[in-house]
Design brief:
The chain is α+β, with helices and mostly antiparallel strands and 339 residues long. Among the domains are: 93 residues, 2-Layer Sandwich (Beta-Lactamase); 106 residues, PAS domain (Beta-Lactamase, 2-Layer Sandwich). Helices cover 17% and strands 38% of the residues. It contains 6 helices and 17 strands. Strand 13 and strand 14 form a beta hairpin. The protein is elongated.
Length: 339
């Protein structure tokens, strides 16, 4: 380990017998089993016990190995719900101090309800001011700090159609609220909740790991991909493009700046919603997209003041992967009717 922190996921899920390593220092690892890094040496079991204890208690633990020769430190990474998604673990000499560890934070996407949550650690990574922090958001808000990524359609397909047990890892560029660009490795697994209020729901449990400045981190994606350049060239004032989940008619992400005056964030007292009387029209649009690839209609959506705003929604069917589709929509103000 050479005096580096191990970042170990504890997402759980059916068929997962033990946690795996997703980071060694600032180097991402693709869910590597602990023995692959620690070998079958005398301290493997010590680290396993440390990770299990930290995950169970949700608190930092400092201990020594069974033979008393080494020092152990474990720090939890927990979402706002209290669920521990991962553990930072360090193994070193008795007189040795651990290095400063990278920022990392826990998060979840509830794929059944469309709600997401993070942790204070994650908001520290994003540089979010204390007054702007909320414990729960909607999925579209997760993409507001992320720049384009060649793997982006795969990530969106995961949100739409992830079966329990599905795993995903990718490096994205994060634009912090202070303007810094950071390379961040995302690792997650879809898990079916088996107890509590979320029983039966599929939840994507994840960790974001800051691995360095985007400009000097080789694994960071390029700032602007060709597809983004095409989208930028087609941008038109007053028309706001987005990607929508056809399964539940919820916003996945904005392509352009969000449409002004529309409630799309999970902020009270006016959370995003379609007018109840227009849900049937929206479902009919979804059916037309599936059959002909295009559809358009006027729908009422909730405004930021709690009113209902009529908007023109034009949609085209888009393929996220070979098994998953979504709607590429353009939203604009409803044209004024002539005399």
């Amino acid at each position: 380990m050479a005096n580096r922190w191990l970042l170990i996921e504890t997402f759980g899920g059916e068929g997962r017998e033990e946690p795996s390593v997703i980071g060694l220092g600032s180097s991402p690892k693709r869910m590597v089993p602990l023995p692959a890094l620690l070998g079958r040496g005398r301290h493997l079991e010590d680290v396993r016990v440390l990770v299990s204890d930290v995950a169970e208690k949700g608190t930092s633990i400092e201990a020594t190995t069974k033979d008393g020769s080494r020092r152990l430190i474990g720090d939890p990474l927990a979402a706002f719900s209290g669920r521990v998604h991962g553990v930072y673990a360090w193994l070193g000499g008795m007189q040795e101090d651990p290095p400063v560890r990278d920022l990392a934070g826990a998060w979840y996407f509830n794929l059944t309800t469309g709600k997401i949550g993070g942790s204070d650690d994650l908001l520290d990574l994003y540089g979010v001011a204390p007054e702007d922090r909320r414990s729960e958001r909607v999925i579209a808000e997760a993409f507001t700090r992320l720049t384009g990524n060649a793997d982006e359609t795969g990530a969106l397909a995961l949100i739409v159609n992830a079966p329990p047990g599905y795993e995903h890892q990718a490096t994205w560029t994060v634009r912090r609220d202070d303007g810094q660009l950071r390379a961040a490795n995302f690792a997650c697994r879809a898990v079916r909740e088996m107890a509590g209020e979320a029983a039966g729901e599929v939840v994507l449990r994840g960790i974001t790991h800051d691995i360095g400045p985007a400009e000097t981190t080789p694994s960071a994606p390029p700032k602007l991909l060709l597809a983004q350049q095409v989208l930028a060239a087609e941008r038109q004032p007053g028309r706001h493009r987005a990607i929508v989940n056809l399964r539940n008619l919820t916003l996945l992400r904005w392509i352009d700046d969000p449409m002004p005056g529309i409630a799309w964030e999970n902020s009270t007292p006016f959370p995003p919603a379609l007018h109840p009387d227009d849900i049937a029209k929206a479902k009919a649009m979804s059916a037309r997209l599936a059959s002909s690839g295009r559809a358009a209609d006027v729908l009422r959506v909730r405004g930021t003041s709690g009113d209902w705003a009529s908007v023109l929604v034009e949609g085209a069917l888009m393929l996220l992967d070979q098994h998953t589709t979504a709607a590429f929509v353009t939203v604009s103000r409803r044209p004024e009717r002539g005399p």
